[in-house]
Amino acid sequence: MKKSLFAVALAAAGFAAVPAAAFAQSASSPTAQQGWYVDAEVGYGQINKGPYDSKGDAIGGLKGGYRFAINPAMSVGVEAGYEYLGRIDARYSNASSLRSKLYGPTLGANLRYNFSPDWYGEVRGGAFYAQGQGLTDSTNPNYQRFDRTRYYAGVGVGYNINQHWSVGVNYNYYDGSNRSHGVQLQTNAYTAQVEYRF
C-alpha cells in the first residue's frame, strides 16, 4: 500500500510542478472544462495482499459530477460513482465459494489540468464505501464479509476528442480492506475511460 500511495503522491507532485511556461494558456481561449459530466471505465484490477496476492480480474465503474473552471487551464470537479472491482480466486484455490468480491459507491473530487486544447492530466481522490468479502490473511484463513468506508486515489491522462467527448487511461488505488477482520482486498485498478460532457 505504501508503494501505491508513494506512486500516486509522486505523480501528483510531478503533475503540479509542470512549468506554466511550457503549457501557457491564453485567457482569450480557455481550455478548462466547466459543467456536468458522466464517464464509464473498464479495465483490470489486481490485489497484492494476503491470499489473493498477484491475482486480477476485469473491473468497471461509472461516475458523474460537476467541474468548476478555476483558471483558463484548470478545473476542479466534485463527483460520485460506483465501482465494481472484480471477483478473484485465492492463490491456491479456484473454488467460487472462496473468491473475493469488492464493490461500492465513491464520493470524491478531481483536479484536471489541460496541457493543450487536446490533452489533459488529472489527479483524484475521495471516500470509497467498500463492500467486500474474502479470505482473511491469517494462518488459518476464514471467509469474511464486510462494509467499511475507506478511500481511493489516482491519476490519469486523456485526450479531448471534441467539446463533449474525451478518452483517457487511469490508475486508481482502492483501499478495500477491513483490518479488524484481517481481510486485505486493496486493489490497483488500471482502466480506460470514456467521458461525456454536457
UniProtKB/TrEMBL annotation:
Residue ranges annotated for the Outer membrane protein beta-barrel domain, each copy included: 12-198
Entry keyword Magnesium: no
Keywords assigned by UniProt, alphabetized: Signal
The keyword Ligase belongs to this UniProt entry's keyword annotation: no
Pfam families: OMP_b-brl
Signal peptide: 1-24
Any one cellular-component term (Gene Ontology): outer membrane
Full protein name: Porin family protein
Species for this entry: Dyella choica
Highest classification ranks of the organism: Bacteria, Pseudomonadati, Pseudomonadota, Gammaproteobacteria, Lysobacterales
